[in-house]
Amino acid sequence: MAKPDTKRRADLLQGTLDMLILKTLTAGQMHGYAIARSIQQSSQDALVVEEGSLYPALHRMARRGLIEHEWGLSESNRRAKYYKLTGAGRKQLKADTERWSSFSAAIGLILNPPAVQA
């Protein structure tokens, strides 16, 4: 029997992974493992991006022109694809961030409704 996870981890809402990857790449080019690690560290281990989700997202985003890659050597001296943001990716991140802010504000209103004035 598998041991239950002692830390509760949040599931990513559909579409948020792309936004998180774009935001992570604003720090500069990174290989896939570094992107996943950065998201995990930035979220204080609440978000763990598995390879099975990360690499299809990176390939999809590259096809859409949001990111591009070049080959380089990782810290462990292995060949790796380094991804970087494109101009289209920066525009998409801005739009996604605005949409996410509106969405989370709306959810906040439902979870914490403003006090009714008498």
TL;DR of this structure?
This protein has 118 residues and is an alpha+beta fold. It has four helices and three strands; from the N terminus they run H-E-H-H-E-E-H. Strand 2 (67-73) and strand 3 form a beta hairpin.
Description:
The protein is α+β, with helices and mostly antiparallel strands and 118 residues long. It has one domain (16-108): Winged helix-like DNA-binding domain superfamily/Winged helix DNA-binding domain (Arc Repressor Mutant, subunit A, Orthogonal Bundle), CATH 1.10.10. Helix content is 50%, strand content 14%. It has helices at 16-25, 32-42, 51-63, 87-111, and strands at residues 30-31, 67-73, 79-85. A 3-stranded antiparallel β-sheet has the order 1-3-2. Strand 2 (67-73) and strand 3 form a beta hairpin. Helix 1 crosses helix 2 (32-42). The chain is elongated. It starts with 15 loop residues before the first helix and ends in a 7-residue tail after the last helix. The model has no long low-confidence stretch (mean pLDDT 89). This is Lineage-specific thermal regulator protein. It holds the Pfam family PadR. InterPro entries: Metal_resp_DNA-bind_regulator (IPR052509), Tscrpt_reg_PadR_acidobac-type (IPR017799), Tscrpt_reg_PadR_N (IPR005149), WH-like_DNA-bd_sf (IPR036388), WH_DNA-bd_sf (IPR036390). Residues 21-94 form the Transcription regulator PadR N-terminal domain.
Strand content: 5-15%
Number of strands: 3
Characterize the quaternary organization of these chains. Answer: single chain
Q: Please compute the radius of gyration using only Cα atoms.
A: 17 Å
| CATH architecture verdict | Orthogonal Bundle
Say what the CATH topology is.
Answer: Arc Repressor Mutant, subunit A
Summarize the main sheet. 3 strands, antiparallel
How many domains comprise the coordinates? 1
User: Total helix count?
Assistant: 4
